[in-house]
Amino acid sequence: MAAEAAAEIVREIAAVGAADLAAAAEPLRADCLRLARKVSLLSHLVAEVAEAGAGVGTRTQRIRGWGIWALQAARRFVELGRAPARPSRASDQDAVCNNVAVQFKFVTWQLQTVLARLPQSCFQISDEVQEEVDLVRAQLRREMEKKGDIDVNIFSKFHDILALHVSTVGSQSEQSHGQPDTPQMENLCNGHLELQNIIMLVSEISGVPKSDAERITSQLIEGLENMRVTDSKKPVSVSQSSDETKASPETHKKSDAVAIPEDFRCPISLELMRDPVIVSTGQTYERAFIQRWIDCGNRTCPKTQLKLQNITLTPNYVLRSLILQWCEEKGIEPPTRSKNDGAYLEVGGERVAIETLVRNLSSSSLDERKSAAAEIRSLAKKSTDNRILLAESGAISALVKLLSSKDLKTQEHAVTALLNLSIYDQNKELIVVAGAIVPIIQVLRKGGMEARENAAAAIFSLSLIDDNKITIGSTPGAIEALVELLQSGSPRGRKDAATALFNLCIYQANKVRAVRAGILAPLIQMLQDSSRNGAIDEALTILSVLVSHHECKIAIAKAHAIPFLIDLLRSSQARNKENAAAILLALCKKDAENLACIGRLGAQIPLTELSKTGTDRAKRKATSLLEHLSKLQVL
After folding, report:
1. Contacts of 299 (CB under 8 A, 6+ apart)
2. Largest Cα–Cα distance of the chain, in whole Å?
3. 357 and 300 inside one domain
4. pLDDT for the residue numbered 341
């Protein structure tokens, strides 16, 4: 029932169009449209969760419940846009916009959180659907960032309290009977009007009654007050390094006797955070310590041990503001940040050396330019600190100019240096803004083979930012150059091109561009290439993304891919059989001609075998295809 309810909500939200929101004012109308587009991308996920069955695990059931909860909140938000607009005075418009921003950020946070906690193995989620989920999560995170510095910790605490409230609602209502909550709320909220407003807005979009919302607000504020109470029996000193010791002796005495709230401490250093940043798991750390952790090759969250989906560090401005406020109240010297956005770099001579190298990129001497580009290529590969310093020193724009160098080695060093710099997420946007896409594509088309390989890898790296998928895909010649490398490049070049094309084709419009650029010919070749390790897997992965687009689906069938896909059902590895079956099923859905074709080619025997011996997902796909074939024969 939960899966059916989720599917119904997704269909309802996805069906909302601009005409339905004609009466809505901005920004509500735009927010509703963007939310509807993102939720529509979850239809495949909901279908696969439904296929996985009911599940018996407590965690699985809880996540299903959270998912329904999040989708219901999304539906309520869209309903706000469909309702007739209420007349408001010009003076009230700012408040209305702020309220919409809070509710929209909560809805996107809730959806993103549920998707982050989704156990892929429990629900047997396929790789291609997981790619869609990751894309939606990234888009939701960006939407949250656009809505300003509303502390998502408030959302998290609200969610936890509400979950507890729902499970104990009977006992809570009995305890509160005859004891009005309003006086307590008035006492607690004198200094927390903004927080109270946020909770009321979030409660409204969550369908929580006003009386319950007041109780939750009371609990949340009480918790915040308790967090700030000094525990004089357990003094903990505020750790400061010698170069930060600017406070008076009296200040140090105060700090020695003050307990630092646990939420203000870095989980790694256990010290008061000066530049708190959020990782993909939602945990907050001191930037310098988590950056060192990542630079050492770790890809898990130190506190939760969950895998980091990416290594982006998002500044937690709200927590930093609370820390500064707390320091001021306690009379403690506030911790200071580095000017380099919190990355504690050992600068000095290193910065001077890097600035010299960057100047040499514009030298009149070819040898000096080539040598500087080679050195920067090496430095950018070594550490995040170097990538930040190089970008700050102006290396990106100078390297972009060198992409047009007639010296092929200089060109190779420049494109590889940009590839290495792009590993740091904030540099991705700087590289695109510096106008690097067109010259990188020129290198991809006409450079030496190693330069072409690294140009393809750079395009893949830059395309990890969703907006860049659109920018790169719409740049004339970009996808064509990747298809050419896929067809005639070195083994590594073909692999880099395949990876870049797959990532670009996650964006719907790029699927058609890739097909029109001739991607199907090399993909069909790769399906037959058992000599190159991974070629078949790469081809199937790209085809599984393309086949979701109607025009591409028709083109795949016309390219005579079906016989090769059926051959893979008979003789390939388990993963390839699974992907081949999934693509065949997509080709045959609502297409009697393709279905008849696989019947004529004798697909029943390998499909029957696969339905018994394949992976769980392969069994589902094969069984579904056999059912379609059976219905066709009956007709």
Report:
1. 307, 308, 311
2. 91
3. no
4. 39
Read off the pLDDT of residues 413-472 as tens digits, 9 standing for 90 and up: 999 999 999 988 889 989 999 999 999 999 999 999 999 999 999 999 999 888 899 999
Within a domain: 207: no
Q: Place 483 in a pLDDT band, splitting at 50, 70 and 90.
A: very high
Same domain assignment for residues 359 and 325: no
* Same domain for 385 and 324: no
In angstroms, the CA 40 to CA 32 distance is: 12
Decide: helix, strand or coil at residue 307.
strand
User: Residues 360, 325: one domain?
Assistant: no
- Cα 182-187-192 angle, rounded to 5 deg: 105
Residue 516 domain flag:
no
Query: 305-316, pLDDT tens digit by residue?
Result: 788 888 888 888
Question: Quick one: pLDDT band at residue 133, thresholds 50, 70, 90?
Answer: confident
Q: What is the pLDDT of residue 314?
A: 83
Do 150 and 270 lie in a common domain? Answer: no
Contacting residues for 611 by C-beta, under 8 A, at least 6 apart: 619, 622, 623, 626
10 and 130 part of one domain: yes
Residue 512 vs residue 339, higher pLDDT = 512
Q: Are 302 and 293 contacting, i.e. CB atoms less than 8 angstroms apart?
A: yes
In terms of domains, do 298 and 370 share one?
Answer: no
Domain range enclosing 324: 262-330
> What's the angle, vertex CA 260, arms to CA 255 and CA 266, rounded to 5?
120
List Cα–Cα distances, 263 to 126, 152, 365, 378, in angstroms: 37, 14, 54, 39
Note the helical H segments in 87-192.
93-117, 127-146, 152-167, 169-176, 182-188
Among 408, 430, 452, identify where a domain stops. 430
Q: What is the pTM of this model?
A: 0.50
**Closest Cα to residue 386, out of 376, 372, 396?**
376
SS3 169: helix
Confirm whether 499 is domain-assigned. no
* Same domain, residue pair 12 and 135: yes
Nearest in space to 599 (alpha carbons), one of 570, 625, 560: 625
Report CA-CA distances (Å) from 183 to 223, 340, 608. Answer: 18, 48, 69
Could you tell me if residue 632 is inside a domain? Answer: no
